Amino acid sequence: MTTAANGHETLSLRGVIARVFLPFALGYFLSYLFRSVNAVIAPYLREDVGLTAGDLGLLTSAYFLAFAAAQLPIGLALDRLGPRKVEGVLLIFAAIGAGLFAVADSVGALVAARALIGLGVAACLMAALKAMTQWFPLDKLPVVNGIVVASGGVGALAATAPTEWAVEAIGWRPVFGVLALATVAAAVILWAVVPDRKRPADVPEETLPQALGKLGVIFKSRAFWRVAPAVAMNQGGFMAIQGLWAGPWLRDVAGLPKGEAATVLLFIAVAMVCGQIGIGLIAERLGRLGVSTLTVVAVCMAGFIGTEVLVAVGWTAAPLPLWMAFGFLGTVGILCYAVLSRQFSTALAGRSNTSVNLTMFIAAFAFQWGMGAIIDLWPADAEGRYPAEAYGAAIGAVVVLQVAAWVWLILPRRQS
């Protein structure tokens, strides 16, 4: 069996998996591990560096700010240079950032290192999705993209109890040293293993002004602006909470010790993997029955917002099922990349995906930092724990914005 979508090369399905899917999946695994790891190491950072909730929010969200700033240039680079070259170079910056994080001893140094990590992994998902559009047919993208994103869920899983065990055994600084070496290895694999996809003969090479002009087409599209606000609010909130504030909530509101909180975070990651694969499969099956992908997105987003409401009100009767539902439903945003892939040509896949990514990561930065600032409005107790009301106010503010964006998504309108 071979694939020859959107180019001249052919590879067997096994070859595509080994030489395309797995190297990009490894990169996204590391990206999500970096994104989520602070939820586990937060108490160690508080103790070693003396961080407040606001400091912790700024430090962790610096990843998202650098990530967002890189999205549009990355989109142009992906469509012009290809995913292998772009991600292979940027991962070296992530490795440098991880190494600096391992030796940083001040808030400023940690923020700078975290931002460098964010820049370095900024292309991991978009490069993978671009590669998938080059090697798989469009009707398979919801499932294929879901499996790619599931590799990130495995990274989130690794950032929970396994990371807690590693930090307890050797300390958080050596853990980041190991991550730096792993990131260098991932960059080498991308350069050595992944084949470049030739430009189809019927797609002329663009000049830079032409490329920028087509970026403008995306931002003028009503189809883009129907989806982007909901993705930004929903996924931005999900990343802000899952990547940082879920851990402190479990300790401060639910009263769980570090080890038990890390275990719940692990199950959230398991639920994420299930959601990243399962929601894509559900969307594909329902699509055969005439149910649109946008309908699936709207229903799952409504359910996700419901889980956040329960978290905001401090419902602790069954934290594990609640947070697993949060993890499963919070992955629905991946479907929106497939939606946009149908609205724009394959040649614009990198730019359309990174454009929506830009809005999403700006929201994630604002939410993660802003939630820390809101939580800091309440005094911490002698053990550094914040009250449930502080988390309720922070998460409630996110929910209000998500509901507004969800209403915008489902409003009836003419086809664009």
Descriptive report:
GO terms for molecular function: transmembrane transporter activity. It is a multi-pass membrane protein. It is found in: Cell membrane. By secondary structure, the chain is mainly alpha-helical. The chain has one domain: MFS general substrate transporter like domains (Growth Hormone, Chain: A). It has helices at about 15-35, 40-50, 55-80, 85-105, 105-120, 125-135, 140-160, 160-170, 170-195, 210-220, 220-250, 260-290, 295-310, 320-330, 335-345, 350-375, 390-410, and strands at about 1-5, 10. It has a two-stranded antiparallel ribbon with strand order 1-2. Strand 1 and strand 2 (about 10) form a beta hairpin. The longest helix has about 30 residues, at about 220-250. The radius of gyration is 20 Å and the shape is globular.
Largest sheet: number of strands, sense, barrel closure: 2 strands, antiparallel
Structural class: mainly alpha
CATH topology: Growth Hormone, Chain: A
What is the second-level CATH architecture? Up-down Bundle
Number of strands: 2
- Name of the CATH superfamily: MFS general substrate transporter like domains
Strand content: under 5%
Which CATH first-tier class would you pick?
Answer: Mainly Alpha
Q: Please give the share of residues in helix.
A: over 70%
The helix/strand series, from N terminus to C terminus, equals EEHHHHHHHHHHHHHHHHH
How many domains make up the coordinates?
1
Compute the CA-based radius of gyration: 20 Å
Q: In one word, what is the shape?
A: globular
Number of helices: 17
**N-to-C CA distance:** 38 Å
Q: Kindly state the mean pLDDT as a whole number? A: 86
